[in-house]
Specification:
The protein is α+β, with helices and mostly antiparallel strands. The protein contains six helices and 13 strands. Helix 4 packs antiparallel against helix 5. It is globular and about 50 Å long. The two termini are 30 Å apart.
Length: 261
């Protein structure tokens, strides 16, 4: 679901125009305040918690995009034992836990990126986040390789804010058990961009055909990504990578990661 965001869209637009080093502290403070706002919690978080008790996999429950795609605010639901793959983004990002507790892992890339579909990672740290712990931030690309999930027994909810993309892809997915990396592109975003780019031609047969070709190409790419699931499916390999259901429950706090309010 993508609709116009009710909270302070002016501030979100301002944050999205800033360079990364300035945007991240502002985004972190914005999210830290947002997840504690009573009105936002009652309107956006608590209804999601009530619906998520019987869900099996993690998902984005609500998504609010800027009209120019300069930012995207997403509410993630994490049922017990679920988590993302290791990945990065082509934009800066920040997130704050709004309900329960989520666990974040960060990874360092050890290779120079010169080999296609090859990446060597080393787990740098892991950290628990609760609503009172502030916000975490990630740089675009190799500077923000991470994954997020919920190794606990109850539902967790987090709110994520992403800035404008700095590449054609949305990011990359990693599998350190195979030293593997591949591009990731959201089908929904690609279709939206296709429709916008060809809006003036949409009424002509040529425009409709061009848009159909782009959507078909994206779907083929999406199918190829799914075909690679075997290389990215919850490996139990080196570098401390394991399913979230097997992660330690005693991740240390790193207070330096929580920005001041």
């Amino acid at each position: 679901m993508t609709i116009t965001l009710r909270p302070d869209t002016n501030e979100l637009r301002e944050i999205a125009t800033l360079p990364t080093e300035s945007a991240l502290p502002r985004a972190a403070r914005f999210l830290s305040d947002l997840v504690k706002d009573t009105g936002f919690r009652h309107a956006e978080i608590l209804p999601v918690v009530g619906k998520a008790k019987n869900d099996q996999g993690w998902y984005v429950a609500r998504q609010y995009d800027g009209e120019d795609d300069s930012y995207s605010l997403k509410i993630f639901v994490w049922p017990a034992g679920t988590g993302t793959r290791i990945h990065d983004h082509s934009s800066w990002g920040a997130y704050a836990c709004a309900f329960g507790t989520v666990l974040e892992e960060r990874y360092d890339r050890l290779d120079n990126g010169s080999l296609a579909e090859h990446a060597r990672l080393k787990k740098a740290w892991q950290l628990r986040w609760s609503p009172e712990d502030g916000s975490s931030t990630v740089l675009p690309g190799d500077g923000g390789i991470h994954r997020v999930g919920n190794p606990g027994e109850g539902v967790a909810i987090s709110v994520h804010l992403y800035g404008p993309r700095m590449a054609e892809i949305d990011g990359r997915d990693y599998d350190p058990s195979r030293d593997y990396v591949c591009d990731r592109r959201e089908l929904r975003r690609a279709i939206k961009e296709s429709a916008r780019d060809h809006a003036r031609e949409h009424e002509t047969g040529e425009g409709r055909q061009k848009e159909a070709e782009i959507v078909r190409h994206v779907r083929v790419s999406d199918d190829r990504a799914r075909a690679a699931e075997g290389a990215l499916a919850e490996p139990q390999g080196p570098n401390g990578y394991a399913p979230f259901t097997e992660l330690t429950q005693s991740a240390p706090r790193r207070e330096s990661m929580a920005l001041p309010k």
